[in-house]
Design brief:
Elements: E1 8-14, E2 18-25, E3 33-40, H1 47-50, H2 55-74, E4 80-84, H3 86-90, H4 94-104, E5 109-112, H5 115-129, E6 135-140, E7 145-151, E8 154-161, H6 165-171, H7 176-188, E9 200-204, H8 206-219, E10 230-232, H9 233-245, H10 248-253, H11 265-279, E11 283-286, H12 291-297, H13 302-305, H14 309-321, H15 327-335, H16 344-355, H17 368-377, H18 386-399, H19 410-415, H20 418-438, H21 442-445, E12 448-453, E13 456-462, H22 471-484, E14 487-493
Parallel strand pairs: 1-4, 4-5, 6-9, 9-11, 13-14
Antiparallel strand pairs: 1-2, 2-3, 6-7, 7-8, 10-11, 12-13
Helix pairs in contact: 2-4, 5-12, 6-11, 7-11, 8-11, 9-11, 14-16, 15-16, 16-18, 17-18, 18-20, 20-22
Length: 494
Amino acid sequence: MPTPESQRCGVVDLGSNSVRLVVFEGRGRNPQAIFNEKAVLGLGRGLQTTGRLNEDAIGPALTVLARYHAVARAMHADPLEVVATAAVRDAENGPAFVAAMQERMPGLRIRILTGEEEGRLSADGVLLGFPGADGVLGDLGGGSLEVVRLTEGRVARAASLPIGAIRLAERAGGEVARARAITEEELAKQPWLAEGGGRDLYLVGGAWRALARMHIAQTGYPLAIVHHYVLRREEARDLAGVVMAASRRVLERMAGAPQKRLADMPFAAVTMRRLLRATGASRVVFSANGLREGWYARLLAESVRQDDPMLAAARELAAAWGRDPGLPPALIAWTDPVFPEQDAGIRALREAACWISDIGSHDHPEYRAEQAFLRVLRQHGAGLDHHARAFLGLCAALRYEAEPSAPFLGPTRVLLDLQTIRRAEALGAALRLAYTLCGGTPDLLAGTRLERTSGRLVLRLAEGTGVFAGESVLRRVEQLGAVLGLEALVEVEG
């Protein structure tokens, strides 16, 4: 897809524990990061006792920031902005550090966020992936925890609490039991957190993502993607309890444990468990989107932000890998009579499946099914939950004649229930028939139509349009009819 350099933008997230540069390309509904680099500096370590930024980290931080400035300029990222969070805004020497940045990098935009601004930016990032989010958002950094009440995709209220993973550990003197009491006290000051009862708790932040990766590794979950990873309330409580009680040596041996974050993990677990209690949430939903994506979201046109993220991701795949942009809309209309869904979510999945149905057209014929499946399962789309990835990937693989029992389709048998798999098999069979008829062109598809009546599936072909009822067509009609439990017929119209 054409993405001119003028459409690149960059943001430096200057946090209490790390500093990170992300360069985004384009202005699409799903953020496309083409550069992402992090340095763990511990700028906010010791802030709780000294009131100052870590003097040992200031020099390295300025060096790293100068590198990020050079990288972003070389990539023609515009706008480019540094957003500083809890450590810089709370430190006595924060203004002097900002002045040193400006002297070293003249013209660089630097913004020190308030706690509420930080929370609202994180919420904007989460809403890119969860547009109808309803519950409580928690964004855990090194210096602070931002909590936001989300009501059906809107920010209702926000607060910033001084219990980031580093600061909490310092306030508690490294004692987990004391950290629990401190966290409970801080959360009790926000009684509105209880409005999350029975809803979702959306978690953002590197330490919490590390907890999710540990759970993924320990359970053998088939998809190593934290974004949209979901834990039931009791699963999340159990995970937090294990990490809180573990010694450093035990943590080091745990599958998926982040070696650079081991000291912070018990305190990240404390905040997760206490936040679960304060909100009464029924599920924990992890988001890889946060403050940086929220910064990006504010550059988007409102019409783009309102677009469905799953359908936007599917259209992006079609633009990158498909052959004819006019075919997917034609396929949606062509399959309408066969799948008269009542549920809007199921219909959106069918539309997305039509959009991605030709993404293997440029791959080797022997590997089209597998490549298409993996391309969908592992793509970057912010709005694709794990269920949607598995369903759409399965539809694409079946459209390319994959055997349902193929080993590479193993993740679908874990992520999807039997009813959903059957629905994917029917849609895959319909798409396979469509491509057999039209060769990937909307013009030939226009000479055909499907009708579903009581107990019968009828394929009607217009004579003289380049389509005919050959052996392959007859076989595919019968396969579709069998999946749907219908008698299949072909009728040619003069």
